[in-house]
C-alpha cells in the first residue's frame, strides 16, 4: 500500500525537476538555480546511501555530478526521464571515484556493501538488456541487425556491411531509421 504514494512522490519529483530544467535551458536563471539545488538534494541522498563508510566524500561527488550535469545539459534528450539521466551521471562519478580509491584502499578496506553494490549493478544491467531486447525486437530485421552490429557490438559500418551483405550506405540508412523508430517507441512509452 505504501508503494503508490512512493511512485506518486517520485513522479512529482520527476515532473518538477524536468520543468525547472527545461526553464533553465530556456534561459531562466532562477529556475536553473532551483533545479541545481533540488538536484543536489536528490543526488546527495543517492550517494549518501552508497558511501555510508565515506560520508566526507559525498559532497565532493555531488559537486562533480552537478558539474557533469551542467556540462552535459545540452545533450539531454527531453524524452528520457530526467532523474534517470541524472542518477546515471552520478553513478558514473561514483564508479570513477571507486576506481580511483580502490587501488589505494584495497589493502586496508573492502568496498562498502560490495555484494549489494554489484548485485544491484548486475540486476540493472539485466533489466537494461531485457528492455533493449524488447525494443530491438520491434524493429525490422535489417534495422535491428545493423544497430546491433554497429552500436552494440562496436563494428565499423564497413564491417557491419560485410557481415550483413549490404552496402555501407544501406547499413547507415538502416541504423538511422532503426534509431528513429526506437526514439518514437520510447517517446510513446513515456
How would you summarize this macromolecular structure in one to three sentences?
With 190 residues, the chain is mainly alpha-helical. It is 80% helix and 0% strand. Helix 3 crosses helix 4.
Q: What can be said about the biggest beta sheet?
A: none
Q: What radius of gyration results from the CA coordinates?
A: 20 Å
Q: Overall 3D geometry?
A: globular
Strand/helix succession:
HHHHHHHH
- Helix and strand content put the structural class at mainly alpha
N-end to C-end Cα span: 24 Å
Mean pLDDT score: 82
Q: How many beta-strand segments?
A: 0
- How many H/I helical runs? 8
As a percent range, the share of helical residues equals over 70%
Low-confidence stretches: none
Proportion of residues in β-strands? under 5%
Topology summary:
Layout: H1 3-25, H2 29-50, H3 55-71, H4 82-105, H5 114-137, H6 141-152, H7 157-164, H8 168-189
Helix pairs in contact: 1-2, 2-3, 2-4, 3-4, 6-7, 6-8, 7-8
Please describe what this structure looks like:
The protein has 190 residues and is mostly helical. 80% of the residues lie in helices and 0% in strands. The chain has eight helices and no strands. The protein has helices at 3-25, 29-50, 55-71, 82-105, 114-137, 141-152, 157-164, 168-189. The chain starts with a helix and ends with a helix. The mean pLDDT is 82.
Tags for this model:
single chain, 190 residues, mainly alpha, 8 helices, 80% helix
Amino acid at each position: 500500500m505504501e508503494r503508490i504514494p512512493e511512485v506518486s512522490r517520485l513522479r512529482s519529483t520527476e515532473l518538477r525537476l524536468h520543468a525547472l530544467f527545461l526553464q533553465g535551458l530556456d534561459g531562466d536563471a532562477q529556475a536553473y538555480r532551483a533545479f541545481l539545488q533540488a538536484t543536489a538534494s536528490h543526488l546527495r541522498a543517492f550517494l549518501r546511501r552508497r558511501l555510508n563508510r565515506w560520508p566526507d566524500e559525498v559532497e565532493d561527488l555531488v559537486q562533480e555530478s552537478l558539474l557533469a550535469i551542467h556540462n552535459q545539459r545540452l545533450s539531454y534528450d527531453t524524452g528520457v526521464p530526467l532523474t534517470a539521466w541524472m542518477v546515471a551521471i552520478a553513478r558514473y562519478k561514483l564508479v570513477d571515484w571507486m576506481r580511483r580509491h580502490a587501488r589505494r584502499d584495497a589493502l586496508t578496506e573492502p568496498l562498502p556493501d560490495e555484494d549489494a553494490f554489484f548485485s544491484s549493478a548486475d540486476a540493472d544491467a539485466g533489466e537494461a538488456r531485457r528492455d533493449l531486447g524488447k525494443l530491438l525486437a520491434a524493429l525490422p530485421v535489417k534495422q535491428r541487425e545493423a544497430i546491433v552490429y554497429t552500436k552494440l557490438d562496436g563494428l565499423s559500418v564497413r564491417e557491419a556491411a560485410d557481415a550483413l551483405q549490404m552496402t555501407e550506405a544501406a547499413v547507415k540508412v538502416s541504423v538511422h531509421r532503426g534509431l528513429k523508430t526506437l526514439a518514437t517507441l520510447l517517446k510513446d512509452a513515456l
